[in-house]
Specification:
This protein has three helices and three strands, in the order H-E-H-E-E-H. With 74 residues, the chain is α+β, with helices and mostly antiparallel strands. The termini are far apart.
């Protein structure tokens, strides 16, 4: 599936986390807002704030976000 569908699966609890290097804004802009409004977290891979123009996306259910960032940034 596409980036949007995968991110939304995190918002519904079907996935714990999703990582996307090099997304296009149209691939994740709406999904990022939905994930955040559903209680999840979305950042760049380095933990910096996410925006539709981010160069990387890490989206999680919010519960594992810090741990996933730790693993990704080792």
């Amino acid at each position: 599936g596409c980036c949007t569908m995968s991110m939304l699966r995190g918002a519904t609890g079907e996935l714990d986390g999703y990582v996307m290097p090099g997304p296009m804004p149209e691939d994740h802009a709406a999904a990022g807002l939905i994930v955040e409004n559903a209680g999840g977290r979305v950042t760049e891979i380095d933990g910096s704030p996410w925006s539709p123009f981010s160069t990387t996306v890490v989206a999680t259910n919010g519960l594992i976000h810090d741990q996933l960032l730790e693993v990704l940034n080792r």
